[in-house]
Design a protein that fits this description.
The structure is a single chain. The chain is mainly alpha-helical. The chain is 70% helix and 1% strand. It has helices spanning 2-12, 17-38, 46-57, 77-89, 96-120, 135-143, 148-163, 167-180, 188-200, 204-238, 258-261, 264-286, 297-302, 307-316, 319-335, 345-349, 352-359, 363-377, 384-404, 406-425; strands at residues 67-68, 71-72. It is globular and about 60 Å long. 44% of the residues are buried.
Length: 426
């Protein structure tokens, strides 16, 4: 019994996570090396990226005229800047092996960063192994060289900065993530709620303007040559909200008939569900540091709480709250996305273990859901069964987080009332 008790303590006590993190990093580094040298590389977009960079280096600054063998350049300027550097160090993209090694470094750096975010959120050690066992995630980085890895890394840099209450730095990292791939905008509502309660109360207009200027400057500096040449063309390509994906590549909605998948009503319904879920979580979960519902927000902005209450609210914007809120918002966006491609798993895999822990499910159930999700994303091409599991796993995770964070809301409301009472007494 004593051994079992000690094992349980090692698996569940967040204090022991640091001792597990380093061995996992070392083991995964070795695994990355084996994958690079033993598993054949699969060409998908790397050559096209290099072709686009070659056109850029030839002097083209009109975004609408930059394209490769797989089509036009459809990512923001941060993507182009990163792959410009990769073009330089890999001999114009010819040294694919070196590129794979660099992506392995990116993968390990992201793993270390995610673990750091988990540790700040006091996640238990038993969920950490799920971060290193994903076949699909390794493939996305080392065998496909997709740009999603850079955007996800920048997003977790933003999360880590926010967890340390380095608000301006976090906003700069978040904007850079958006400049690599606009999918990062899925987390924008969560970022707004976090900044409102952690940094903006009592100085809403001045601090909001500062965050806006920082985020805008990052975008402008990276995209300035293209904005000067053809601003409309750049914005329409880099942030195209009307793009339609082919049915044959969808991972999540394969069980929906193709005519429905391609229809306007289907996309409208998904957008409506996304907005509804975000508003529901914002109203009933994400405002919990302030102990408020969504509708008193205008009053909180116009007539801020007392300084003591503001300080209490900011303290309640904990690393765990920040990580939970951003990852949940991202998961909602993925649940309601019209089409997920295989590389989008990079947006999901790093956050799934933490969100499953936040559901309060038994560890066996957590690993079962994680395993089912991993299986579904490794089925190629996707099938009706695999796509149902993809959607089902997201749905069960989000529903579980809704239920698992219920008690946090009650605690926040009670503590805010206590803080308000103390402020009035003083």
């Amino acid at each position: 019994m004593k051994v079992i008790k000690q094992a349980r303590e090692l698996a569940t006590n967040p204090a022991y996570a640091q001792w597990l993190a380093l061995p996992l990093l070392v083991a995964d580094s070795i695994l990355c090396g084996l994958i690079i040298f033993k598993v054949p590389y699969t060409e998908i977009d790397w050559v096209a990226y290099m072709e686009q960079i070659k056109i850029y280096l030839a002097g083209e600054r009109d975004y609408t005229k930059i394209q490769g063998s797989t089509g036009p350049l459809v990512y923001p300027a941060g993507h182009l800047r990163i792959y410009r550097l990769l073009y330089a160090v890999t001999d114009g993209g010819k040294n694919v092996l070196l590129a794979q090694v660099l992506f392995a470094v990116l993968y390990i750096a992201t793993l270390a960063l995610v673990m750091a975010c988990y540790r700040r959120a006091r996640a238990p050690p038993y969920i950490f192994p799920m971060l290193v066992f994903s076949k699909r995630l390794h493939s996305i980085y080392m065998l496909r060289l997709f740009n999603d890895g850079f955007a996800v890394f920048a997003l977790f840099l933003a999360i880590y900065a926010y967890q340390r209450h380095s608000w301006m730095l976090g906003s700069a990292f978040y904007s850079f993530a958006v400049s690599v791939k606009m999918s990062v905008l899925l987390a924008l509502p969560a970022v707004g709620v976090i900044l409102l309660q952690g940094d903006l109360l009592g100085r809403f207009f001045s601090r909001s303007l500062t965050h806006f200027v920082i985020m805008s400057q990052v975008q402008i500096v990276l995209a300035l040559p293209f904005l000067n040449e053809n601003a409309t063309g750049y914005l329409s390509r880099a942030f195209d909200l009307t793009r339609q994906f082919l049915y044959k590549w969808t991972v999540n909605w394969r069980f929906v008939p193709e005519d429905i998948f391609l229809s306007k009503p289907f996309s409208t319904v998904l957008l409506g569900i996304n907005a509804g879920l975000v508003l529901l979580f914002a109203r009933a979960r994400w405002m919990k540091p302030s102990g408020s519902l969504l509708y008193p927000l205008p009053r909180m902005v116009i007539t801020p709480p007392a300084p003591e209450v503001q300080q209490f609210i900011a303290q309640r914007v904990t690393p765990q709250f920040i990580l939970t809120t951003i990852l949940t918002c991202n998961a909602i966006g993925m649940l309601c996305a019209r089409s997920l491609h295989y590389q989008f798993f990079a947006w999901l895999a790093w956050g799934t273990p933490f969100l499953l822990w936040r559901t309060g499910y038994h560890p066996v159930i957590i690993y079962a859901i994680w395993g089912a999700q991993e299986w579904a994303w490794n089925v190629y091409p996707s099938t009706q069964a695999s796509s149902k599991v993809v959607v089902g796993a997201l749905l069960v995770t989000i529903a579980g987080v809704w239920d698992g964070t219920r008690k946090d809301l009650h605690v926040a409301v009670r503590r805010r009332k206590e803080a308000k009472s103390e402020a009035q007494t003083e």
